[in-house]
């Protein structure tokens, strides 16, 4: 089943206790697309400016990622993010962010992407997320992500987006910020009142939680001994989850739970190295093997 993602494509500078990387490929749509491509083909929609070094974009070469929807916009500058995990590996401090193209208009969607059935609106300006969604013809499953910046500065636009999606994926801090509820189950239920039918809350090293009308389901994180760079963990989680779901064609509670376990495992590869290097070292076989290990560890 066709899976489309839109979101940020950026140049990141990242600092963690393990070192610093300048000007590496990043962005929510990049991590998502790479992660989802372990399961099946992905259609990528996003914009960079003409300053984006082409070798950075080569990171996607050889993957099942259709980049027809990747616009290189003349006269614009690429989104840039500088984040630090030096104080706390569980939450990024934004040292600097330059929205650049993200403050402009959405990328044009290729005609042959318009029939996409599974859609992930990865973290970006909620106006761009809505603009992309409006173009699509009859998606079956629409899931979005967001972050504190948009919750605080674009609450109205985010509110409009929430009415149009089936699921929202966000982290614990963002869920509390959005709803002013401390208890995460209460927060998830509050989000559901804003539109989505289900909410997935990511809790970093403490795993993730799914809340829907009929289910509350929690999963631990995959026990990782060496976390080098958590950047992109959330997007990779979503990529693994949606990538698997798109191969199944069903959203039964057990399918969604298995999908979350795939998301967890894919994220565990991302955090083992800087930028996309952790994911680049993964294979579908290694993901499946870790998934079975994770499943076995859940039985008691
Ligand atoms: P994650 O660690 O999964 O939450 O996502 C990390 C990625 O999000 C980085 O590669 C950043 O480029 C990107 N990012 C950071 N801030 C923003 C923002 N305001 N809008 C869109 N993407 C962002």
Structure commentary:
The protein has 300 residues and is an alpha/beta fold. It has helices at 28-36, 54-57, 126-135, 148-153, 155-162, 172-179, 184-193, 233-248, 253-270, 277-280, 284-298, and strands spanning 3-6, 10-16, 19-26, 42-49, 65-73, 79-84, 93-98, 118-121, 141-145, 167-171, 198-202, 208-212, 216-219. The chain has a 9-stranded mixed beta sheet, with helices on both faces. Helix 1 crosses helix 8, helix 6 (172-179) crosses helix 7 and helix 9 crosses helix 11. The model has no long low-confidence stretch (mean pLDDT 95). The protein binds adenosine monophosphate. Adenosine monophosphate (AMP) binds at residues 8, 10, 12, 26-28, 31, 81, 97, 123-124, 147, 149, 231-235.
Number of strand elements? 13
Could you give the distance between the termini?
35 Å
Give the ligands present. Answer: adenosine monophosphate
**Overall pLDDT metric:** 95
| Topology as a string of helices (H) and strands (E) | EEEHEHEEEEHEHHEHHEEEHHHH
Number of helices: 11
As laid out across the biggest beta sheet, the strand order is 5-4-1-8-9-10-11-12-13
Could you say which overall geometry the principal axes of the C-alpha atoms support?
globular
Helix/strand/pairing category: alpha/beta
Query: How large, in whole angstroms, is the Cα Rg?
Result: 17 Å
Question: What oligomeric assembly is this protein in?
Answer: single chain
Report the portion of residues in β strands: 25-35%
Give the uncertain stretches in residue-range form.
Answer: none
Largest sheet: 9 strands, mixed
Helix fraction, binned, reads: 25-40%
């Amino acid at each position: 089943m066709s899976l489309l993602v839109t979101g940020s494509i950026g140049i990141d500078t990242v600092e963690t206790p393990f070192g610093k990387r300048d000007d590496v490929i990043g962005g929510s749509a990049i991590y998502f697309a790479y992660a989802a491509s372990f399961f099946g083909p992905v259609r990528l929609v996003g914009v960079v400016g003409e300053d984006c070094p082409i070798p950075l974009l080569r990171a996607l070469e050889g993957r099942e990622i259709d980049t027809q929807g990747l616009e290189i916009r003349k006269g614009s500058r690429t989104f840039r993010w500088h984040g630090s995990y030096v104080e706390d590996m569980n939450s990024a401090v934004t040292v600097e962010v330059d929205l650049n193209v993200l403050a402009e208009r959405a990328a044009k969607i290729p005609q042959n992407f318009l029939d996409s059935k599974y859609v992930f609106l990865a973290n970006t300006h909620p106006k761009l997320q809505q603009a992309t969604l409006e173009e699509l013809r009859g998606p079956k499953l629409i899931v979005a992500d967001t972050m504190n910046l948009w919750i605080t500065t674009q609450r109205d636009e985010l509110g409009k987006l929430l009415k149009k999606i089936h699921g929202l994926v966000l982290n614990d801090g963002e869920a509390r910020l959005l709803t002013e509820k401390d208890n995460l189950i209460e927060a998830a239920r509050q989000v559901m009142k804003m539109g989505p039918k289900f909410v997935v809350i990511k809790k970093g090293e403490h795993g993730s939680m799914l809340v829907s009308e009929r289910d509350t389901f929690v999963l631990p994180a995959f026990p990782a001994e060496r976390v080098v760079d958590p950047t992109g963990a959330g997007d990779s989680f979503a990529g693994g989850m949606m990538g698997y779901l798109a191969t199944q064609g069903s959203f039964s509670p057990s399918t969604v739970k298995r999908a979350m376990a795939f998301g967890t495992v894919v994220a565990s590869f991302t955090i083992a190295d800087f930028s996309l290097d952790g994911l680049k070292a993964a294979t579908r076989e290694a993901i499946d093997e870790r998934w079975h290990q994770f499943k076995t560890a859940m039985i008691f």
